[in-house]
Each structure stands twice: as structure tokens, then as C-alpha cells.
Amino acid sequence: MESAALLHDVDKLASVKREVDGLPHGEGSAAWLTRRGCAELAPVVAGHPVSRLADAAWFERWLDTASSEALVLAYADKRAGQRLESMAARFGSWERRYPPEARAERARGGWSSHTLEAVWRRAETLELLVCELAGVTPDEVRRLAWTGRALRSARAG
Ligand SMILES: [Fe+2]
Questions:
Q1: Contact 18, 62 (CB under 8 A)
Q2: Residue 37 DSSP class
Q3: Is the pLDDT of residue 111 over 50?
Q4: CA–CA separation, 79 vs 27, rounded Å?
Q5: Tens of pLDDT along 136-149?
Q6: How is residue 32 annotated by DSSP?
Q7: CA distance 40 to 68
Q8: Are 77 and 44 in contact, with CB atoms under 8 Å apart?
Q9: Neighbours of ion ligand 1 (CB under 5 A)
Q10: How far is the CA of 32 from the centre of ligand 1 (A)?
Q11: Is the N or the C terminus of the chain less surrounded, counting Cβ atoms within 10 Å?
């Protein structure tokens, strides 16, 4: 789980991006991990991007088939910026960084307000499911001690 968490965005690195050219974010990380002999991590990272929540059919299939690790990683992605935050704060940050005009340029067509609402509802479904699995409320979610050490180590490396 820790390895998947640390490597889920690896396809954002320029060198990796070149290697997995053309694959959507998340699937690129999954392909890169598979090529490096870590195929077991691929399904854990592949579905984490928030953009996946815009696809209703994909989301329903994924919810039915995703491992607990994949669900936790996708949920953590919706709670973790530079620090742990609420989903509302995280989505607000995405809104500020990727306003509708920027999204329209990045992804063909962008997201309508209807899609944004649907994405939010699916994120809430994910939150409910993961918190139920973990036996906590969203307010009780905390970073574990290993994350501080891992982040310091990654920054130093
Ligand atoms: Fe990501």
C-alpha cells in the first residue's frame, strides 16, 4: 500500500511521461509499475485520478471491483494536498488551479456544472465507503506516522 501511495503519481515525472506516452494519468503510472515488475500495484494506482469520477459507467464498475487499497488510495488523493484537508478544500483547490477555462483547454470540452456535481457526489460515495471500511468518520482521518518519514526521505533523495 505504501509503495502504491508513494508512486501513484509517478507518470507526472517528465522521464516517465515520455515512457508511457499517450496513456491517461494513473494508467501511465500503472503501466510504468508493471514494466518494472510491480504489476500488483498497477490496479491500486490506475483509478485514482479525480477525472475518473466524471465517467459514471467507469465509476460504478470500479466501485464493484476495486480492492480496498485502490479505494483508500483514490480517497486519499481526494484528501491530500500538501497536507491533509477535507474533500471540499481539495476540490476547491482544484477549482482554483483548473478553472473551467483551463479545464476546457486541458480536456476536450471540460466539465459542465452537471458533471462537476456528479463528480462531487461520486467522491462523497467513495468517502463514505472508505470511511466505513476503516471504521472512522471523515473528520477522524489522519496521516500515519510513516508518511512524515517517507516524505522527508523522498525530498532528500
Ligand atoms: Fe494523481
A1: no
A2: T
A3: yes
A4: 20
A5: 999 999 988 877 88
A6: H
A7: 13
A8: no
A9: 9
A10: 14
A11: C
> Of 79, 80, 82, 94, which is closest to residue 124 (Cα–Cα)?
79
Q: What is the DSSP string of 74-140?
A: HHHHTTBSSSB--HHHHHHHHHHHS-HHHHHHHTTT---HHHHHHHHHHHHHHHHHHHHHHT--GGG
Ligand 1 mean position to 109 CA, how many Å? 20
CA atoms of 8 and 115, how far apart (whole Å): 24
Cα–Cα dist 106/46, whole Å: 20
Q: Which residues contact 148 (CB under 8 A, 6 or more apart)?
A: none
pLDDT tens for residues 39-52? 999 999 999 999 99
DSSP state of 23: P
The Å distance, Cα 119 to ligand 1 centre, comes to 15
